[in-house]
């Protein structure tokens, strides 16, 4: 008996087949581009999502695909796919790094139960209604990315609380905020009914089954957002369990039995299990490091790591990684990045090392926001493809002042999605999930470093000094 997890990420799609014991049997992945037709836009053609799904599925062993009896979905959160009554996308998907709607956040005056960012479905749909009325007029469904993909495979028009609560159009519980939707002038019927993340979200169509090499009629779970799926797949279950994920963005997730009081720059969202989690969400982790690697001309990540960590940490060079604005804890879509303090004797290794430190310090700002609101953090699980190198792990542990234990699960969100598929198929129970948690091994223990603390303080001061400049530069552009 096998279950297939599909994780629709920002820049790639991942598949994993797991067995009834939660062990990963096979996996594959394929990448696609995030395009920017205009400054600040972040989009992907949904046709690319489906094409890479078919490609990635073809590289899974045929006998393992034959044994799949349940399918679950994990998806990048916040963005939106405007679709017609049949689920056909009417334009490219608008994604969470998108900042085109930054001037429209006045519809969400503070205080809010959760911070609102311009790349969330609410601001993006408000922008769509004003700037692409011809698309808005044809729209029947405003779907979250993973929900569009499930519909494409024959599933029902539905969403789950973990995704809905992060659209800026719903209550923290995930229930749609109809009063807000009406005030924004958006049609209520655009928004799919809620279902449990592990609930049955339809059956795999014959056409999709043929394309993917699976059996037709396989039950599909509604699915959940990628962060709650990663928490589920990593084995987080008890209140206080914490996880750091490093991918395109970065998330610090702490499980909680009940909703916590609102806190500036932090999110309190629904988990895939129906519980809650507090989160600091940073946009500029892998995406910033990938850009820096390209700018500096490193042919491989190995070369970038070796050069960066061979270079001594600079006492003068600092890097702000905010290439696409920032969420936690600053909630500043106008923030921008760059190096400061360069001298003629600095090398590209110095610049790459400063970039790693800058990203670690940006994550530390999120950790400190959680700590400041009453949640102690001295140990976290570690997951995500951007946290493999042991030198980078040690820098993260030192900068965050936490013990890091790496989850023995290379595809945590995909595994979580597969487990949801097993529950939807009636082969697993939600109460079984804690017992299926993967092992976690010690990855790094924080070491005291006074010079690192000084560079952290300089980083925070640099951001503060440039905050007004970011805003003024954007307003005058």
TrEMBL record:
Natural source organism: Caballeronia fortuita
Ranges for domain Carbohydrate kinase FGGY N-terminal: 4-233
UniProt similarity note: Belongs to the FGGY kinase family.
Pfam families: FGGY_C, FGGY_N
Entry keywords, A to Z: Kinase, Transferase
Full protein name: Xylulokinase
Highest taxon above the source species: Bacteria
Molecular function as annotated in GO: kinase activity
Carbohydrate kinase FGGY C-terminal domain ranges (all copies): 244-425
GO biological process, one term: carbohydrate metabolic process
PANTHER family according to UniProt: SUGAR KINASE (PTHR43095), XYLULOSE KINASE (PTHR43095:SF5)
